[in-house]
Each structure stands twice: as structure tokens, then as C-alpha cells.
């Protein structure tokens, strides 16, 4: 569960260039919820995601994850709970390392590393099975450098790697914005399946209203740093794509 109490973020406070990116708001996201956040550019949705991840500190308010106060914890200190997939497919992987090595590092992300990443045959088999689930034909290429793959392939693999260390929260920051339609579909279906399989608390920021309509059990619209609309459960399921388009007309 993620709880934000009167959380806010102001940039350049007290200066002529002050921007109130997120105005004081309170939000509770239940364990296992898949929340989609939409909004125009500058609405505050990415800033809100950055506040949850810990990559920026709030100006006011406090936040907890699974009943632990994380308000003053930086992003690396929250990594035992949170995994994040960024818009840029290159951000989540090490280009020069193989697919297998990337997966091993992901599995050890929150643990102390020794002199070797220690890849066993059992781990290799596990990785091949996970990669095969994507249907991209990469399961027989796991010794291939990650940098030789397409952006869509790398983003799909990044998603799989994000749950290798049993995280509880998955943050998706425009994960398909740089992908072709076919790769984007694979990535979103994979994210949805992982969210269900691992009972992840998932937060997706997207401009894609089709994805916002299709995925998740809750949708939030932000505008000018505020939460404008919040639909969940039955009320979310009753929305149509036209309803979402009307929000921005």
C-alpha cells in the first residue's frame, strides 16, 4: 500500500520561476491496485511518480509504503520495495552485458554484491523460461549483449527484470512512448500479467488513452498539480474511450 498525506512539490520556491508541480494532495493506493495516471503536459503526473519513487523530495507532506515511512528515503533506499521502468528503453539495462548477466544483476539489485555475480545453470534455465514468455524468440539469445537488441525487446526484458528481486511496487513511466505499436502491445500485456501474477501495486503514467482505458482497475486524471478525477472498480469499468477523450477536449 502507498499512502501520500498532503504531499506537494514546488520547484524554485520563492523565486519568480516558482512552479507548484504538485499541490498538496492525499492519495491512498491499495496493495495490488493497478493505477493509471493521465494528464496533459505539466499536469504533475510525472512529478507525482518521482515523489513516489524518491527521486525527488517533497516540499511538504509525508509518504509511507507498506506502513513504513519513506518520506526522507532516497530512491536507492526505497529500492527494496520499488522497481521502475522508464520511457527510454536504454535506461533499464546495461548494453555491454548479456541478457543473462543483466537478469542476474537485477536479481541482486537490493543485495550486497560479491566479486562474482554467480550464474548457476538453474538460474539460466529460469531466465530462459521467463524470456520465452514474451514470445519474442529471445530465449535462445540470452548470451547476446543487451545492446544488440531493439528498444522494444529491451523494454520488455526490463519489465521482466524488474520483478526478479520480489519488489512490491512497480512504477511505469511512459514505458511505451518510444516503441513501435507491436512492441508497445507486448510491453503493456507483460506489465499487466506481471502485475497480476505478483500482486504488484502498479502505477502507470501514460499519454496513451487507449492503454489508460484498457489496463488497470483505477484511473486518475491530474491537472495543474491536482487530482481532477479518480475512478476505480465499477466506476472505472463503466468508462468509455470517448469519456477519456472528452476529459481533454
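-> sequence recovered:
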Amino acid at each position: 500500500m502507498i499512502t501520500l498525506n498532503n504531499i506537494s512539490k514546488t520547484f524554485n520556491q520563492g523565486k519568480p520561476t516558482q512552479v507548484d508541480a504538485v499541490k498538496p494532495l492525499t492519495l491512498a493506493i491499495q496493495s495490488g491496485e493497478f493505477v493509471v495516471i493521465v494528464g496533459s503536459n505539466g499536469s504533475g503526473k510525472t512529478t507525482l511518480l518521482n515523489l513516489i519513487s524518491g527521486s525527488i523530495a517533497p516540499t511538504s507532506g509525508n509518504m509511507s509504503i507498506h506502513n513504513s515511512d519513506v518520506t526522507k528515503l532516497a530512491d536507492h533506499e526505497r529500492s527494496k520495495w520499488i522497481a521502475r521502468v522508464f520511457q527510454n528503453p536504454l535506461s533499464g539495462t546495461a548494453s555491454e552485458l548479456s541478457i543473462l548477466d543483466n537478469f542476474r544483476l537485477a536479481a541482486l539489485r537490493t543485495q550486497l554484491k560479491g566479486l562474482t555475480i554467480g550464474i548457476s545453470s538453474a538460474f539460466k534455465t529460469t531466465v530462459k523460461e521467463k524470456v520465452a514468455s514474451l514470445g519474442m524468440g529471445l530465449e535462445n539469445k540470452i548470451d547476446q549483449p543487451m545492446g544488440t537488441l531493439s528498444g522494444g525487446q529491451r523494454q520488455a526484458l526490463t519489465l521482466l527484470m524488474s520483478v526478479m528481486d520480489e519488489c512490491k511496487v512497480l512504477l511505469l513511466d511512459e514505458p511505451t512512448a518510444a516503441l513501435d505499436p507491436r512492441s508497445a502491445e507486448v510491453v503493456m500485456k507483460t506489465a499487466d500479467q506481471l502485475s497480476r501474477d505478483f500482486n504488484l501495486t502498479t502505477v502507470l503514467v501514460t499519454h496513451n488513452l487507449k492503454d489508460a482505458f484498457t489496463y488497470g482497475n483505477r484511473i486518475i486524471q491530474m491537472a495543474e498539480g491536482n487530482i481532477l478525477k479518480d475512478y476505480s472498480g465499477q466506476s472505472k469499468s463503466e468508462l468509455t474511450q470517448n469519456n477519456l477523450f472528452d476529459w481533454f477536449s
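The chain is about 30% helix and 25% strand.
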